[in-house]
Amino acid sequence: MPKDNSTVEGGIGAATTRREDIRFLTGEGQYTDDINLTGQAHAVFARSDVANGVIKSIDTTAAEAMPGVLAIFTGEDFVEVGGNPAGWLINSRDGEPMKEPKRPVLAHGKVRHVGDAYAAVIAETKQQARDAVEALEVEIEELPAVIDMASAIEGGGLVHDEIDTNICFDWGWIEDNRAATDEAIKNAPHVTTLELVNNRLVPNAMEPRASTADYNPGTDEYTLYTTSQNPHLTRLLISAFVLGIPENKLRVVAPDVGGGFGSKIYHYGEEALVLAAAKKLKRPVKWTATRSEAFLTDAHGRDHVTKIELACEKDGTFIAFRTETMANVGAYLSNFSTATPTFLHGTLMAGNYTVPNVYVNVKAVFTNTAPVDAYRGAGRPEATYSIERIIDMTARELGMDPVELRRKNFVKPDQYPFASAAGLEYDSGNYDRQMDKLEKMIDREGFAARRAESEAKGKLRGLGVNAYIEACGIAPSNLVGVLGSRVGLYDAATVRVNATGNLSVMVGAHSHGQGHETAFPQVVADMLGIEAASIDIVHGDTAKIPFGMGTYGSRSLAVCGSAVVRATEKIIAKAKKIAAHMLEASDADIELKDGQFSVAGTDKSVSFGEVALKAYIPHQFPIEDIEPGLEETAFYDPANFTYPSGAYACEVEVDPETGKVTVERFAAADDFGNIINPMIVTGQVHGGLGQGIGQALVEQTAYDSDGQLLSASYMDYAMPRADDLPFYQVDHDDGTPCTHNPLGVKGCGEAGAIGSPPTVVNAVVDALQSGGHEVTHVDMPLTPSRVWSAMQG
Amino acid sequence: MYDFEMIRPTTIADAVAALGDEDAQALGGGQTLIPTLKQRLAMPSTLVSLGAISEMRGVCMSDAGEVCVGGATPHAVVAAEATAYPGLAALAGHIGDPAVRNRGTVGGSLANNDPSACYPAAALASGALIITNTREIAADDYFQGMFTTALEEGEIITEVRFPVPEMSHYEKFVQPASRFALVGVMVAKFADGVRVAVTGASEEGVYRWTEAEAALSDDFSAGALADLTVSSDGMISDLHGSGDYRAHLVKVMTGRAVTAAA
Ligand SMILES: Cc1cc2nc3c(=O)[nH]c(=O)nc-3n(C[C@H](O)[C@H](O)[C@H](O)COP(=O)(O)OP(=O)(O)OC[C@H]3O[C@@H](n4cnc5c(N)ncnc54)[C@H](O)[C@@H]3O)c2cc1C
Q1: For residue A585, what is the enclosing H or E element?
Q2: B38: alpha, beta or left, given left = phi > 0 and alpha = psi -120 to 50?
Q3: Are A693 and A724 in contact (CB under 8 A)?
Q4: Minimum mean pLDDT among A383-392, A472-481, A560-569: which range?
Q5: What is the mean pLDDT of residues A151-172?
Q6: From CA A652, how far away is CA A463, in angstroms rounded?
Q7: pLDDT confidence tier of residue A530, bands split at 50, 70 and 90
Q8: CB–CB of B241 and A785 under 8 A?
Q9: B111-to-A133, A502, B28, B33, B108 alpha-carbon distances in Å
Q10: Cβ within 8 Å of residue A445, ≥6 positions away
Q11: Taking chain B, what is the end-to-end CA distance rounded to the nearest angstrom?
């Protein structure tokens, strides 16, 4: 696996167009908000308009008397139930476990960020619920907001009174390497230091969050329709931690989901609220976020402030990376928020390089802002940005070519498996080859001429490069368990061959833009030698699929796809037995090719369809040896992360009069291992690049010192648009296969967002320096005003 | 939104009568008003749509050679039909996106007088006449600070008359998120002098940059601006740019507008 030249139409390697797009593009998608249940009531939340405050009183009397009002909930109603937990336990350098203040369903006692929900009204109509929310008589005593991370660490106000600090944890990675790294830096001939900000991002999925709960008093069963990237995980969190509804009584359905980018991994209080309300009212209860609620309450991304040092020899050989980072976790710990700045970030801090010393310190800080969690790339963009920015700066200081400096320190193809100084074992890669490709794609040699052309127009032109590695396919339960994960990170699939020979494949990964409904059947079709069109993927419903940990960290194909392979292998094994019986041969002699089971060396064969039918109509069937039916389940837990890598380059023009940056060219040479559907992979790269360039140039999340979100709508929060982006050159051919999963695949969903921000910033710095500006760094987003200010010195 | 009534009169007289009710409000293209209602920031009892009043829609030429735009004319129509005044047509054609241009109206834009909107710059640089159901107001008297105009309660803009300059151009530097003007400058060269109107920059809303007008009236070239400085006093300072940056852009955009004027 995979086959070099698939003989199956639409099998592995085919650029099949996405079958799910037909329903999305014709408006036939079924999103959570499209689901309307008979008798449903509507929930609207009362949200804090101050960042930090004591809830003195909530008088619901007037609101309760309003037309259509069915119930009002406040934090008081949930004191007996559990909090929404963090999925990873991180220990501080001193061995103390992280601080874990409770994250309640509704704020109780205190509100901690603008948008924090402290009450919810359920009414016959949404309009009535909204009217009643306005009629709540609420007294909140505003306290000074804790916004800036450095001040939050120093003390002053507290986000959570029950812990006497705003520091969630102070983590060192790898703590045992700290002294050696310090020593190496002290003695190094050259040290570059850079302070940078990895800007906070609002995820902005096209579909806002929505949840509808249904309760059946006859069976005591609940159904939650919700915008989730991982329905099983949501069920687990609600069952085991928050409401205590037994898993066997709770069905979670995530139908079509209009984008997640991480923000829909997590369980949110609104889901628990609608479940509790549905039970109380014995009626379905629906909630759909407004865009404003999405801005204020979806878990944001990134928000790191980092000091990084790179020590090297005079010839550019890397000696050590050392970083000190403040990572904003916002007001409450979201489910992955403690993993993202630590194990998804610190472990990647050796980059693609043979650097012998790495030490990473991360302080996670509570502030009166929306929770911050994994967002496309999750930790790896933060690592890549720091590393690749400082390498560029070092190259300038040493007067070296930035590509040559990287090449000098690359892990070489004969060094795999390679134990990085940040604690991971890279299984495969070829960074020089990616860089070779890249230099051709971007036409590095032609750059000087293009720069001259730009200068003739009065523009500055810059070229930026980058190399990245990331860890995907998260992954091995044993490893993540050691690193603090409270869950396992395997995945599961059931392959059901129906009696008439078509297949339903139930997968734990949820598809919300990734194209699983197209790509996964390609794998099964290839293995069975049947057409992909006869195979359907079933996902997003805990009642239909065996189990799954969901979609994030570019894990779907590497982990869940591997489970599909394992389950299909079991199908083949059993089908061969059935075929052997039908052909009166021994199963060892049965071969499967092009959908036909044949006896080796003979012309005797039965088709896949005939075997399927036999499994379900087991007349004259060796019932003592083989069970009827043809359905198999596999759980797959990989041996390691996968390590996609790549090299990116971009050329920008800067208008020196206005500071406006335009991306003129962008080339991405990625290594994703084997490719199942190159068209989908290209689309994933394009999307990731758009997000990464958006982060680099336009996306700006700003809170003022009172904790008001200044960029709370599209009037102030810029999203990248088509005319902000160039036509990309992408290449992901000839990857180095992952060595430990059956498909040899690595994952491609986040790479673009990981590799592009430093590429763009490197290019802008290059452009500014070419214009004689002594600018060594500009913090993202590189808006015209920031670039112009940087040029003013 | 709160509940409201909606009526669609077909004559100016009926619209004015309906607006006489307390808490009635005019609805142009709804591109500003509808989002405001959705956020429950306004609570009109009746919306009086101006969209069905045919005498308030369309572009024509006056006998004096002015381009006359009906107060309820959408931007897209101005972009397509104000061919006699290319600078105006181009300005209208770069407001928002196609959906906004097909609904948003000149009357709504001028009534709202958003400090970052484009039309106020066109009206002021052209020395336009704003015609309402009761009177005619010169652009120089009409704009009275951000979101503030000479309009009285219930008064509606029925038409705007734009004198056509010999040469003109609107140079817009967009705010990256809203794509309204971070700074927009309309330069209009008439036989008797140059008018320069700046939007997006000042806390007082759209204004005329008189020093530039004087310099350009003598010498209509970007170079004529070389010795001028723009103070950042009173300039808007926000997420998207400081007052200094806006002041700088005023000069840069003015120069570019002059160079591009046709
Ligand atoms: C996404 C987006 C992008 C935009 N980009 C730009 C841009 O780049 N540049 C720009 O200039 N504008 C921009 N706009 C604003 C838009 O072009 C409209 O001009 C503006 O929203 C107001 O016009 P309207 O007809 O929609 O007015 P409405 O929203 O209907 O009304 C606005 C106000 O004017 C009043 N009103 C409406 N018509 C009249 C009238 N004839 N007489 C008196 N009062 C009246 C209403 O009562 C209300 O108070 C944008 C809007 C959106 C939504």
Answers
A1: none
A2: alpha
A3: yes
A4: A472-481
A5: 95
A6: 7
A7: very high
A8: yes
A9: 32, 63, 10, 11, 5
A10: none
A11: 45
B44 CB less than 6 Å from ligand 1? no
C-beta B30 within 6 A of ligand 1: yes
B241 CB within 8 Å of a chain A CB: yes
Strand B5-7 and strand A728-731: pairing? unpaired
Query: What DSSP string runs through A196-225?
Result: EEE--B----SSPPEEEEEEETTTTEEEEE
Q: Containing domain of residue A263, as a range?
A: 204-297
Contact B239 A718 (CB under 8 A): no
Q: How many residues does chain A have?
A: 793
- Residues A677, A766 within the same domain: yes
Residue type, A493: A
B79 lines ligand 1 (CB under 6 A): no
- Per-residue DSSP letter, A176: G
In the structure encoding, which two tokens stand for residue A242, read together? 């928050």
- Report whether B196 contacts B185 (CB < 8 A): yes
What type of residue sits at position A51?
A: A
Which residues fall within 8 angstroms of residue B100, CB to CB, at 6 or more apart?
B29, B31, B75
Name which residue leads in pLDDT, A623 or A781. A781
Probe site for chain B from A785, A786, A787 (most B CB atoms < 10 A): A785
pLDDT of residue A793: 86
Q: What pLDDT, on the 0 to 100 scale, is given for residue A4?
A: 45
- Residue A541 counted as domain residue: yes
Sheet containing A605-607: order of strands:
A590-593, A596-599, A605-607
Position A63 in a domain = no
- Residue B249 with chain A: CB contacts under 8 Å: 658
In the three-class reduction of DSSP (H, G, I as helix; E, B as strand; rest coil), residue B253 is classed as helix
From A276, A273, A226, select the one nearest A251 (Cα to Cα).
A226
Report d(CA A765, CA A661) in Å as an integer.
11
What residues contact B139, with CB distance under 8 A and at least 6 apart?
B123, B124, B126, B127, B128, B129, B130
Domains of chain B, CATH where assigned: 5-49 (3.30.43.10), 56-162 (3.30.465.10), 167-260 (3.30.390.50)
Nearest to A671 by CA among A519, A476, A469: A469
CB contact under 8 A, A717 and B242: no
Nearest CA to ligand 1 atom 2: B96
ipTM: 0.96
Q: Chain A residues with CB-CB distance to B under 8 A?
A: 127, 130, 134, 292, 657-660, 698, 700, 702, 710-711, 714-719, 783-785, 788-789
What are residue B68's DSSP bridge partners?
Answer: B60, B161
Dmax (CA) of chain A: 87
| Confidence bin at A6 (pLDDT 50/70/90) | low
CB–CB contact A658 B252 (8 Å): yes
Spatial neighbors of A142 by CB under 8 A, at least 6 apart, are A50, A52, A53
Q: Say which CATH number the domain at A547 has.
A: 3.30.365.10
Supply the Cα-derived Rg of chain B in whole angstroms: 18
Answer yes or no: do A390 and A451 share one domain: no
In terms of C-beta density within 10 A (0-12 exposed, 13-18 middle, 19 or more buried), how is residue A701 classed?
A: buried
Q: Of A297, A327, A344, which residue sits at a domain end?
A: A297
Backbone torsions φ then ψ of B204, nearest 5 degrees: -90, 5
Distance of alpha carbon A534 from its chain centroid, rounded? 30
B232 touches B246 (CB < 8 A): yes
Q: Are residues A648 and A787 both part of a single domain?
A: yes
- Between CA B167 and CA A33 the distance in angstroms is 52
Which of B3, B182, B239 should be substituted to probe chain A, the one whose Cβ sees the most A Cβ atoms within 10 Å? B239
Kindly list the residues from chain B whose CB atom is less than 8 angstroms away from the CB atom of residue A718. 176-177
